[in-house]
## 1
Amino acid sequence: MTKDIARDAVLKKSEDVKGVEIRGYDFSKQFNLDEFIKAYGSTGFQASNLAKAIEIIKKMRKNKATIFLAYTSNMVTSGVREVIAFLTKNRFVDILVTTGGGVEEDIIKCYKPFILGRFEADGAELRRKGINRTGNIFIPNDRYIQFEKIMNRFFKKLLERQKKEERVFTISELVHELGKEVSDENSIYYWASKNNIPVFCPTLTDGSIGDMLYFFRKDNPEFKVDIAKDIVNLNDMALNAEKSGVIILGSGPIKHHVSNANLFRDGSDYAVYINSVLEFDGSDSGARPEEAVSWGKIKPDADRIKVYGDATIIFPLIVASVFGKQG
């Protein structure tokens, strides 16, 4: 009797399950990138979520959705900068949302590169040498010294226009004008300015640009930047979109800024999140798309997925699959 109970517990009868058979890529065949990425769909775990993200973004393009691409500054610190610049150059995205660091680091790289370093580098030693570290990327302080000179000239030019035209520039207008100041075709904002793709930056002052604004305002207290008009413009763009698709690399203010704009249209039609944050603490950063549905930021019937992981690995694979052939 005891044996039968144990056997029934261990070998419990199951119902039949229909669906995709779990199977990885067959490397015994000649390598094919399209087939390789397609195999992610049957691999399981986050690989299958990545495959679903690719299909959702393909639907965004097929159905001509207005695509919001939001990304944190570390994406620009890394080589994902060039990936975003590619999308912007080819008008594959319609609206960009980023942080202060996501603006300034792109401009800094137009003049001097960042250098691959080490995660375990000694912080005190780097500080002594005037080298800043973001993960395993080194950013010598001379980049910021040069950036200050660039921004001082730029702010003076903007202040002169503010007085002459009797207007206050929005942050998106500021970034648009800043993009005109550079000629590096690897720059996101060079192409955003050329292609009139708006760039919204709700946290412009949280970084080196904020430092430069602090010093500049000390000498020029009349200099102003308008944040109110930008929120109207962003919300209107979401509201007026026939279809809305959001791609969010990272979390924090950029994630919520795009999501909240889509609340005004009762939610986006498509949503792809890529980040490594968990939801246990109730933060919006770690929240899954299902939570956004409860707020009306994503439609209940929307195609949606969150891919957990490092966007520097995941996003280039998506772009290679969806946009890499430029159409």
Note: The first strand starts at residue 66 and ends at 71.
## 2
Amino acid sequence: MDEKICIVGLGYVGLPLAVEFGKLSDIIGFDIKEKRIQELGQNNDSTNEISPDELKRAKIAYTSDSKEIRKASFIIIAVPTPIDDYNNPDLGLLKSASKIVGENLSKNSVVVYESTVYPGCTEEVCAPILENYSGLKCGLDFKIGYSPERINPGDKEHTIDKIIKIVSGMDEDSLKRINDTYLKVCKAGVHKAPSIKVAEAAKVIENVQRDLNIALMNELSIIFNKLGIDTKDALEAASTKWNFHKYSPGLVGGHCIGVDPYYLTYKAESLGYHPEVILSGRRINDNMHKFIVELLVKASGSIKKVLIMGMTFKENVKDYRNSRVNNLIKELKEHKIDVTGCDPLLEKDIIEKEFGIKSYDFNEKIKFDAVILAVPHKQFKEISLKKLKDIMDNPILIDVKNFYKKEEAIKEGIAYRSL
């Protein structure tokens, strides 16, 4: 059957998906944020993930009117699932989206969730909300499924049409409808998971694995620093073995790697099991900002003024939510260090309001004691080591992800440190 598709949530996950489906047929794009709907209606994506030309080509009816959802027979919910201050899952947006969809759910529809959740959440939490607000019976009047998002912000290579998509449904009928619908845009193919719980588990596994591998690199960085070994040199030597998996140390923020493991650990602990390995990796990654400050203080005990370059949660992406740079700033301030920030992807007022520090432009004549290159945006290639040296009295550079070459920094007379 030809499905009338509605995407609920037009952020980093929902919008690219809507654009792909919108290239094939008329679809509905729903978001509760009217400002977001207005900008998309003007072919402008403030996240810079989708170009104006791509938006123009997609046949999407953008709306913040939830009643429009009633026109759809295939509804995809793609809203954020963050964690709270205690690292517990925050399902507020997911529950709210389920309520909105439930209130506007038509008979014989399929509702697919893409938001990251713990195994069992779709069936145990979301389905009852849909039933409650629709007055319909799940499995009889409508069906549910789960297809974990695999969007990587800033990545123009692994796009929806080029990656294998996991799909799952509550029964054979729903699985077929979900499979057939996603196949239209996922040219690389789909993988049919045997159950919704398996698909939910697969999503958290993907990011738990990456989190643990990065945690290992971060712990090695701490150990090698104490041994006087350059971590990058050690990793390059080790990577000559055919089965070595290449990962790099760094700050781990964002909405996936730094969040998803807590969804699994929450579920595990609710079942009476304490997941030691996963939580150990989280502790290491959550505290790397402290080690960076330790590197800085050891380089010179008289640091009073520091410039941080790069403030978003990852390089070449505008999203600053869940950025670990915030933790770095707090740690520096606890050491009575004055912090200034610079990020070519963020407006001055965002840096000053959201991070609580002064914004810096390289045209300003201000001197610093040290520079921390936290997030290596490609725009920083225009900033030479000589230019960095010129803004420091006693040049100290903490290059978190080895953006610059150590040898060149040393030749320039810069005290260079990296993870």
Note: Residues 217 and 249 are 5 Å apart (CA to CA).
## 3
Amino acid sequence: MDEEYHKKTLDFILETLKVQSNGNELSFIEVKDSNINPEVVGETISSIANICTYEDRDKGYLVYGIRDIDLEPVGVKFDPFNLKNNSDKSNQDLEITLRQMILGVDFQFIPFKFDGKDFLIIPISKALGRIATYKSKAYIRIGKNTSELSNYPDMEKKIWSKLDKLAFWRMPAKSNIRPEDVIKLLDFETYYNLIQLPIPNDIELIIERFKQENFIKNDGGNWFITNLGSLLFARDMKIFPTLQYKTPRVITYDGDNKLATVIKDQHGSRGYASGFETLITWIDSQIPEPQKITRTFREQRKLYPAEALRELVANALIHQDCEETGMRPLIEIYKDHIDISNPGNCLVPTDRILGAIPKARNEILVDIMKRLYICETRGSGIPRTVGDIEEWQLPAPTFVNQENGFKATLYAYKSFDNLNMEEKLHACEQHVAFMYTKNSFANNETLRKRFGLGEKKANVISKLVRLAKDKNLIKDFDPSSSSKKYIKYIPIWG
């Protein structure tokens, strides 16, 4: 199914080239046969990201395995599934090497096989919060050619003007500091550990790197730490009083609602990146142990899948509206469910959260958290969460927009018989949408597996499906099909 999906992406790229450029390359699409030189790849990624911002495009592509003369899919002559950086003899994965050298853009290596040939697609986002650079230099695509952006000052100025809406992240959180204060106030050790780079012995190299990342700024000789730098890597948020209310809060209740006794009320004290693992560990320690084994196929010692929790907490930090006042990321742990909330509504309709094109409110924050391997930006966090929940056969999670905020809720295990009809319908609708986002189809068999039911319960699922269709939650993929055994379902919006 993945190969089929990637082939469709390749077909879309080729069709775009044929229709929009009469078979030539476009500013935001470059095709190559087999030249995988890391320098060329790095410069091209920077150039496509910047031209996408300039032209108001969300993404562009670098594609390997296509002959640029006639757009013939010839495949590549290298192994796209095992790309290494051989230029410096480090033998490190090429994608990891490039992530260490490319700033301000999200990209992904997608190798796949088709018709016995190997291909590599690299989707490239627009510049995220800053001009995209490779080895501290910015590049731009002019037609089908790559050039340094500094050669085109008018284009550079226009790109910056499009990025100025992200001014909050560049504002000073602490001013009038010395360069040597940076390493005292910001957790540079965690930064280098997460990005998988050795810590430089020279403090000036750390300062220069943090300056490139927009963690610190030099304004006419006066250094300051930005909101971005402090929210990500503060050793102690008390040093940044204007941002203390942006730290996550974890409340543990001895019951299943807000009227229950509060057992613990913990406030975060470190930056999002430097304190993320500590935050996750603390949340995990507060979740009650299950009273019985609730998983069908293997023993369960926790109420919720660890990765699902991790994804939702990361989403709450990354996608919050930091300009909303009086609200902060909040994790509320109850006996039978957990609420994870953040300021700012979800930017896509919550009933389409599994199928909508992802949107990022804080592009510069998303870019950095992706490079630190704390989150992804492909919109895969929610589908992976739902997938984990379905594997554990837990009640379907809910996603709700509240007044100026968004809340995701995970629920402890209930057997199918103990779910009310609303919960059953919600799980049915969500399963169908989840399968659809995987380029697959739900049917009665997949629904029985989702609920942990055997074949003897086929009639129960059939009744649930009929009710879901009556309520316009799902529909048949092929209404004209006469087969009842192999009928497939898709979301009502599919």
Note: The mean pLDDT is 88.
